[in-house]
Amino acid sequence: MTTTLDQISPIGYQGDDPTVAALRDSIYGPYLATHRKARELIMRLGDVPPDHLTYAMEAGIAPDLLRAVLGEIGLPAHEITADIHLRGAFGDWAAVAAPHLLTVWTGHFDLAIGAILTHGTGAPYQQNCLTELDTGAAVGVLALTELGGTNGADQQMEARWDPDADGFWLSNPTIGSVKGPPNIADPTVPKIVVFSARLIFEGRDEGVFLFLSRLRTLDEGLADGVEVGEMSSKLGAAMDHAWARADRLFVPRAGFLGGQWATITDDGAEFRCDEPDIRQRCHRSISPLIGGRLDLSTANISAARAGVAGLINYSKQRPHGHSDVLQRDLVTSAAHVYAGSVLGRMIRDLSVDPAQQARLPLWMTVVKPVLTTIAEKALRTCSARAGAQGQLRCNYYPDWIAGARGSKTAEGDTQVLEKAAGRTHHALSTLKLPGAPTVSSWWLDMIITREHTLALDLYIASGIEHSGSYDEEYEPKGTALGIDSTRADLARTTGVRLVVTAALIAGDQATDPAAATIARACAAVVALTYLDRHSGWYNAHSQQSPDLAEEIHDELRRNRVIIVANQTVLAAAFDIPELSGAPMFAPDYLQAWSHLAEWGEHTFTAQ
Ligand SMILES: Cc1cc2nc3c(=O)[nH]c(=O)nc-3n(C[C@H](O)[C@H](O)[C@H](O)COP(=O)(O)OP(=O)(O)OC[C@H]3O[C@@H](n4cnc5c(N)ncnc54)[C@H](O)[C@@H]3O)c2cc1C
């Protein structure tokens, strides 16, 4: 039996419409059941945005939610960390329906536990830390960023090896080396912290490694040799941000997270490391960030799916919801969020492929910026198009926006990642999704042309024949101010190519013809929006005639119209449930307000 459109609801659709099912398949793959289970358990936490708590009280919600969700799941946190799809499903739904939980999610699972799993040796000290992290008895945190800047391999915090003490003394010799802003300020919450610091061995600088510290325990409070101070609050996404200044904070030998690749001999006299390049030691140490970047990407795109679905649901009930000016913004957001969701799912699949492991860091330098940027932009747009309702916390948008804003900075700032990606110039065009569409389209070809042109420009500037400091010698073109701008432009172009390609692949693979049409329309809207916004570049490079510019607009309009007609189906495919206390997600938002206001059956009968 075929479903008619009016039987499909944008929120909480339970039916078996084949188009909805096919689109869901492209977003969730074979893990829809895992996502449904995660959704159910996360919803059970009841984490509605609160109106009357102080910032510190709000920041204090996350540790309780962490313990509660681990209890509900019934698995130790390290097993969840190791299961990339399970971890992703819970992170994604935390972003949607428990935004407070998301603030500690990646720090706990990907970074702290991830560091122990990746670089641990199984030592009892590490296992004891894991046991506490497994239940959420202690919250895991990575303290990487320093006040002097992200610093990468130039970090300044020091960890001096002391053979007599059989451990390390951590200290911050300068203001710039002080750690900030990990979430460690709350004096009541036990924290297990992985510090990044330079290993100083017999006076030699051996590069940056990770050191596992029981920073704060219930019994003993803050560890000796470290001072922690509260940093300022943010507007939303409340976290107990702090600076940490160590002055001989002791970490035992077993707290050194160098796995088998970086070790200190039993007699404490020699340091051995498989990695000869000191700067590479830092990159290898901080590899757990890759999982965090993946989880932040898909989590924020999930919140954006909710944001789009909420606006589709709400605008249908509003007198001017069908206005084309509102609809243009809405379907442009919907297209980006759908295509970004497909890309996120594909990258998660790809991240469990052993053949892709070496390339994952490069993938994530492109994917995290593009997905978190799409998410934040879509959420801001949908919030704005929902007027006042979109600004009320009960409808979640302010919390989602704050989460996306933070995620664009945390675990690799957007522009820093884009610059790093752009440094590899031609390597970016080798980032290809499995099952790339066999039939290309002219708008995708135009994006690829820009990608190749920018990569070639950077390649020539940094070519193998070239010696000396090419960054300074580089002569920028277009809107670039210097070589980093071009690198970022290239990374963004690659990101858009991947988003568009992902939706095209979804169109190819869809079992339902209507779903294929919608997926391709989303790909087209993303691509053509990009071409429209960069028409100056295409003009300057003689890549666009007035006729082509007109065709871009015509095609963009034609594909937007397809999404306008199918927006309910698309929202239903996002699988967003009614959110507690959020009128925009109710089938009748006026009734939802009536319910919240506790108006009775006869309240309005007198008039
Ligand atoms: C919500 C949130 C949670 C966080 N949690 C933690 C945590 O738990 N632990 C932790 O250690 N840190 C944490 N951080 C800090 C975060 O990792 C850093 O803020 C981030 O790495 C950026 O560093 P920065 O703030 O020093 O910005 P900067 O490094 O100053 O970057 C600002 C801008 O400077 C430019 N820039 C910087 N570096 C370069 C470069 N190399 N090349 C070109 N341009 C550059 C870019 O334009 C960039 O956007 C968190 C941050 C946020 C927002």
UniProtKB/TrEMBL annotation:
Domain of life: Bacteria
GO biological process, one term: lipid homeostasis
Lineage: Bacteria, Bacillati, Actinomycetota, Actinomycetes, Mycobacteriales
UniProt GO molecular function: acyl-CoA oxidase activity; FAD binding; fatty acid binding
The name this protein goes by in its record: Alkylation response protein AidB-like acyl-CoA dehydrogenase
